[in-house]
Design a protein that fits this description.
By secondary structure, the chain is mainly α. It contains seven helices and two strands.
């Protein structure tokens, strides 16, 4: 029987939760930096941190559950900004598609899921840098 207290997000066939988000982020980064054409080639740590900055901008305004309801519409702004960046740079688009970071915003319905989303995004940045992310 599934543990009902575990927060999760469905990412197209993968269930991201408090117990696997870092591992999933690491696997996404490894797959994107190696193999067929290394799809994350051209993505810089600076660009990735700017995407993460969009998320952290909202995160800093959400300190308790009640704040989530007040700032829930800000998730739509993150989505729009990510789509814009993806349209400007192919490497960003590929990154968002492979990691499902943009898609996951639609799954965030409550405060706990938002925290999980933020931790996942932070993990992506951390592993990108750990595995030799480009600086520019």
């Amino acid at each position: 029987m599934a543990n009902e207290s575990i927060t999760s997000l469905s990412l197209g066939g993968t269930i991201l939760n408090d117990e696997n988000y870092a591992d999933f982020a690491e696997q996404c980064i490894l797959k994107g930096k190696q193999g067929e054409g290394a799809p994350f080639r051209g993505l810089t740590t600076t660009k990735l941190r700017s995407l993460y900055g969009l998320i952290m901008n909202v995160y800093t305004r959400i300190n308790v559950r009640e704040d989530f309801e007040t700032h829930k519409s800000d998730l739509q702004y993150i989505k729009v900004k990510m789509a814009y960046e993806a349209g400007r740079e192919k490497s960003v688009k590929v990154f968002l598609e492979k990691t499902k970071l943009l898609e996951a915003i639609n799954e965030v319905k409550n405060y706990k899921q938002f925290l999980l989303y933020c931790r996942y995004a932070e993990s992506l940045v951390a592993y990108f840098k750990f595995y030799g992310g480009e600086d520019k």
